Amino acid sequence: MPRKVLLAFAASATWRPAGVGASGYSLLDYQSATDALKAVDSTIDPPPNDPSIDFAVGGFQGLDNNNVGFSAHSGSLGVGAQGQLSETIPLFFPTASRTYQGRFNVTCLSVLGNDAALGLVPTDAASNDQQSQFVLVVHDSGLPQGIGDLEAFIPDVSPTDCTGLEGLATFGFPIERGNILVNDALP
């Protein structure tokens, strides 16, 4: 009996609904990730739902109650990367009872399989508390509802060349709530 349960679980983990393209994600995956983005920041536009481009999109709550929403896309191999990221941490400044807000533009996108690295440069927005550049690395587990998705911010690296950093996402932190979708287009 346990063997049958294990086989059923393995089959369900790899099953995708009808309409899945060569890229391996479905319309439901895309909708779930864009809904998670909008739950964090409704002002950020999701990337086009186009399997022929590289993209990473999602929204999540991390371990330290940080809320992150991001959208990035590029041509294959990272050409013309663009997008935005928003991070909010309620009561981050406890002495001032103030919320931290970080707003970034994407300057680099490197995608390798289910992993992505996004180079981030702070915007000039008045609400931006962050002046440092970062790279966000994310891992899309491929499971529904963000189960197994990982994230990590990497400081002190160039946000204009994030190639080769995408694999670091597997050493990241699990998301608490939300969903991440990564699409690696064929070149």
Task: Give the number of helices.
Answer: 2
Order of helices and strands: HHEEEEEEEEE
Pick out the low-confidence regions.
1-22
Tell how many strands the DSSP assignment holds.
9
Q: Distance between the terminal alpha carbons, to the nearest Å?
A: 44 Å
How is the largest sheet built, in terms of strand order?
Answer: 8-7-6-5-4-3-2-1-9
Q: What general outline do the C-alpha atoms trace?
A: globular
Average of the residue pLDDT scores: 83
Number of domains: 1
Characterize the structure shown.
The protein contains two helices and nine strands; from the N terminus they run ααβββββββββ. By secondary structure, it is mainly beta. The chain has one domain (2-183). It has a nine-stranded antiparallel sheet, with helices on one face. β2 and β3 form a beta hairpin. The model is unreliable at 1-22 (pLDDT under 50).
Relevant terms:
single chain, 187 residues, mainly beta, nine-stranded antiparallel sheet, 2 helices, 39% strand, disordered N terminus
Secondary structure layout:
Blueprint: H1 2-14, H2 27-40, E1 54-61, E2 67-74, E3 82-93, E4 98-112, E5 115-122, E6 134-139, E7 150-155, E8 173-174, E9 177-183
Antiparallel strand pairs: 1-2, 1-9, 2-3, 3-4, 4-5, 5-6, 6-7, 7-8
